[in-house]
Every structure is written in C-alpha cells, then in structure tokens.
Amino acid sequence: MSFNLYLVRHGQTIFNHYERMQGWSNAPLTDKGIADGYAAGDRLENIRFDAAYSSDLQRAIQTAEFVLSRNKQSGDLTEPEQLQQFREQFFGFFEGLPSAKSSQLIAEKNGLKDIDTYSDIMANLSQDEVMDAMHIADPTDDAEDAQTFWARLNKGLEMLRRNTRDGQNVLLVSHGTLIRNLVDHYASHELAAEKPLNGSITVWEVTDDDLKLKVYNDTTTRW
C-alpha cells in the first residue's frame, strides 16, 4: 500500500514575519500568509484529494481552508480534519522569543560554539539533537524533546495509514519544524537544513513502513 501525501507549510504569520519562535502559540496570518495559502491552492487545484487534514492550530486550519477553496477536483471536501498529532514542536519557554535570542540561549546551555543563529543550530545538529538541546536549555522543562515529539507524530502517521487506501492523494497542512524533522529522518540532513517556506509544498510517497521524499519545499510547480 502506498499513497501520496501533499504536505503544505502554513502561510506566514506575524511571528514568522518578526522571526519569533512559534510552536503551539497562535499568531494570525499576515496578508502575505493568506496569499501563501491561496497560492498553494492554485498550484494544487487539479489534484483530486481523497482526504484533507491539518494540525489543530489556527494558522494551519486556515491555510488548509484556503488551499481547498481553490481546488477544482475534490468535490465537497472544503474543511480539513484537525489533528493534534501534526502540531508544530512545542518550544516551551522559548515560545514567542526572538529566534536569535533563543539560539544564543540554546547554544550557551549546551556548550555549542560559533553558533549565532537558529539556522546554525539546524546545520550543525540533527533535528532530534536540536529538539533535545532545546529541552535541555528550557528552564521550565516544557519544550518537547525528540522522544516526546516523535511519539506524537508517529501516532498521526499511523492514523493516516489506517485511514488511507492504496493510490489515494492526501492533503496535510502543518508546520516548518515538523516538516524538517520528517526530511531529516526519512531523507537527508543536508536538505533539512533548508528552511521550508511558508506555503511551500513537500510531497511524500507513504508506504506501510516508510516515507519516500518526492518533492521538497516547492513554491512554483503546478500539479
């Protein structure tokens, strides 16, 4: 059994615009973020989706609605099913902090040298190591570590496998760090260092026991 998973990153939010950490925090989409969603929908307008899902965070729900509103092939499929399992990583103490400040705190607490930006951390550590380093640096111990994150995400992936038939197309709107974690785990650490753009489309072939990356971080192709 295999199916196609069209994984879209939500549109730009105010926190994205101001380069602040945004995991479970809700911040509204900007005008660009709304346009990101509609643009992704235009590029996916001819894909017949058999099911549509989003994380249960508002930015993902709204983006999924924008994508589906542009779709010409999926009949009355206009609303995503909301799944908590596909939320962004929870950043705990770092929620809402500037990304640059968060990077400095994480680097200092973990003894990482010559690290100036969040991108530096992503480039020098695996995604699992990044999550664990953030958890270690969090004075509240609330930030998700890799084990907690993957336990949640794997439940979501198993749910998709149970509810999808061979050859179907599934839409999922989720989040940048979640997408990076999947790419790092199932495809390439070097590729995962490339930040997924708001409204970008990443396509996976999902089988019973694997994910195969077909397209990453695409903002131009019309399917």
SSE inventory with pairings:
Layout: E1 2-9, H1 14-17, H2 31-43, E2 51-55, H3 58-70, E3 81-83, H4 99-109, H5 118-124, H6 127-137, H7 146-163, E4 169-174, H8 176-186, H9 189-192, E5 201-207, E6 211-218
Helix pairs in contact: 2-3, 4-6
InterPro entries: His_Pase_superF_clade-1 (IPR013078), His_PPase_superfam (IPR029033), PG/BPGM_mutase_AS (IPR001345), Phosphoglycerate_Mutase (IPR051695)
Active site: 10, 88
Protein name: Phosphoglycerate mutase family
Structure write-up:
The chain has one domain: Rossmann fold (3-Layer(aba) Sandwich). Helices cover 41% and strands 17% of the residues. The chain has nine helices and six strands, in the order E-H-H-E-H-E-H-H-H-H-E-H-H-E-E. Strands 3-2-4-1-5-6 form a six-stranded mixed beta sheet. Helix 2 crosses helix 3 and helix 4 packs across helix 6 (127-137). The longest helix has 18 residues, at 146-163. InterPro entries: His_Pase_superF_clade-1, His_PPase_superfam, PG/BPGM_mutase_AS, Phosphoglycerate_Mutase. One of its GO terms (biological process) is regulation of pentose-phosphate shunt.
How is this structure best summarized?
The protein has 223 residues and is α/β, with parallel strands linked by helices. Helix content is 41%, strand content 17%.
| CATH fold type | Rossmann fold
Q: Could you say which overall geometry the principal axes of the C-alpha atoms support?
A: globular
In the CATH hierarchy, the architecture is 3-Layer(aba) Sandwich
Number of strands: 6
Give the structural class.
alpha/beta
Span of the ends, CA to CA: 22 Å
Radius of gyration, whole Å: 17 Å
H-E string: EHHEHEHHHHEHHEE
Spatially, the strands of the biggest sheet line up as 3-2-4-1-5-6
GO molecular function: fructose-2,6-bisphosphate 2-phosphatase activity
Active site: 10 (tele-phosphohistidine intermediate), 88 (proton donor/acceptor)
Binding site for substrate: 9-16, 59
Protein name: Phosphoglycerate mutase family
